[in-house]
Amino acid sequence: MKRSLFGRLWPNLTAAVLFVGFVFPVYWMFATALKPTGDIITEDPVWFPTDITFEHFKTATGVDHFWTYVTNSLIVTVLAVVFSLVIALAGSFALARMRFRGRRGFVIGFMLAQMAPWEVMVIAMYLIVRDASMLNSLVPLTVFYMMMILPFTILTLRGFVAAVPKELEEAAMVDGCTRVTAFRRVILPLLAPGLMSTSLFGFITAWNEYALVLVLNKEAEAKTLPLWLAGFQTAFGDDWGATMAASSLFAIPILILFVFLQRRAVNGLTAGAVKG
Amino acid sequence: MASMTVQTERPPSGPAEGPSDVRKPGGGGPGRTTPRAASRAGALAPYLLLLPACAATVLLLGWPLLKDVLLSFQNLNMAQLIQHVTEWNGFGNYREVLTGEDFWRVTLRSILFTAVNVVLIMILGGLIGLLLARLGKRMRLTLLIGLVLAWAMPVVAATTVYQWLFAQRFGVVNWVLDRLGWHSMADYSWTSSQMSTFFVVTVLIVWQSIPFVAINLYAATTTIPGELYEAAALDGASTWRSFTTVTLPFLRPFLYATTFLEIIWVFKAFVQVFTINGGGPDRLTEILPVYAYVEGVGNQHYGMGAAIAVLTILILLGLTAYYLRIVLKQEEDEA
Q: All domains of chain B, ordered by start, with CATH?
């Protein structure tokens, strides 16, 4: 069936227009961040930054406590991801490999937990943390973020564990490994892509979290990057160059992780679904 | 929270679900323990492995939920908060919330807001997903890159970018509208009215949510067996007919699940609404999660806020239960 010229052309044209539509906000963020202020505050937009400047990045990172926010965000995010991976690995192994009463119930329970309305629960969490005298601390943030990503991590890892052929594990056990060593030597290495993609999504969730830290941590020493970014526009008024530089800095780690790992993550997911 | 996969993947290909044989040994080291002891340990092993996850869930999710319910029955304002006193007032908060006009207005607004967003997301996302399937390799990759970039943008960063795009002075959107001949928009303040604020939030949410739907839908179309189309073509079916008889039925369960997921996500879109305009102007763009926050934390009526939160959670729970029913039924059908 041959398609007419129009029939071949319109999908490509639509795709091109859509591409521009989806990329433009991201492009405009970087472009604005790199333009001198004179090119930002103009009656006619300057579409392509010609003389590139890094002054806005200097303004954005020169804010008091900037490096504290960076450190806080990194600590909280990385710890939350690591803790949830460790806890989830044990649980997902049981769910994927063992038979026991109530297994289905556990799976449904974690599915429900995955949909937990965290944004709505901040009042209760605030009072719990306040009563424990833990406001303005990174500890509650870490454990709650860990919990926010735990159900997703368990459910996804379950698929990855199930995708590892059972025979490999059994062979190792025939060779005299205990179940634990078989897990460590055989399953764990094969799980690497699965661990990577699940931690990617966990990382994004924790890195972006805004509602809880907004309520819990009012002191600068305990704030994280999303608060810095959301407060930027208020603090800097119409300094769009600096605001976009701040947005770029915040988005870059996620964009890089996502673009580089997305393919692997998706491959991992499909491999997990097809194999076995 | 846009970065998640739909939980409609095939169930893990591990041991088949069925009458669970509890006594089956977990496979302890051969000859190290008596069979009976080993089998007892084996029977306990899965529960022990799940213990940390369950403990964390009860402590860190169950407790806040319970606390929320308890708070909703208390008279808890600034004074009580500072003095650490607990004043129970029964259903007082609920009576006040449910008999007041505000709650119902906000609920209706939340429902309309969610409906508009989800309809746009599903229609546009679906069409783009089908377009992806039709494109050539190079163009498809290009569009995929664009979609992934929008998908990956952190929400708070995306909101600041949209504030800049829609800025009153020097914003690109106003400039374009002015150029297109709509001169009254040259200095328009998008955050000055309810509808225009919602418009910006909707564009933002739809832009960020489409990639998830489109990419997953495209991935789903690639799993449709080609023979089905060949059979349809042999029967003399037109393109449209093979779309309605092959593509659509195949994608239906996926579309159901995704729609519900999007409903849940949009319904609790706190960050976008809150950071764009704080629920303003004049609290006119507050949706339920924002309303609970402003009432509870902002106006320091913690008990009231908790009651609103509980009601919101109940609505979400209903939606989630329905979603899980769809997903679980699907897993069973596939297994």
A: 90-334 (1.10.3720.10)
Comparison of pLDDT for A206 and A43, the residue scoring more: A206
pLDDT tens per residue across span B12-31:
333 333 333 333 344 334 44
CA A244 to chain centre: 20
Which ipTM score applies to this complex? 0.86
Query: Within an 8 Å CB–CB cutoff, is residue B314 touching chain A?
Result: no
How many Cβ pairs closer than 8 A exist between chain A and B?
A: 304
Q: What number of H helices and E strands is found in chain B? A: 15, 0
Separation in Å, CA A217 to CA A110, A138, A141: 28, 9, 9
Chain B: give the shortest CA distance to residue A14, in Å.
9
Say how far apart CA B189 and CA B335 lie, in whole Å: 54
Q: Measured between beta carbons, which residues in chain A are less than 8 angstroms from residue B148?
A: 258-259, 262
Q: Which residues pair with B88 in a beta bridge?
A: B74
Chain B residues inside the 8 Å CB shell of A108: 324, 328
Burial of B171 from C-beta contacts in 10 A (0-12 / 13-18 / 19+): buried
Please state the pTM of the whole predicted model.
Answer: 0.86
A contacts of B323 (beta carbons < 8 Å) = 115
Going from the N-terminus, what domains does chain A have, and what CATH number goes with each? 66-274 (1.10.3720.10)
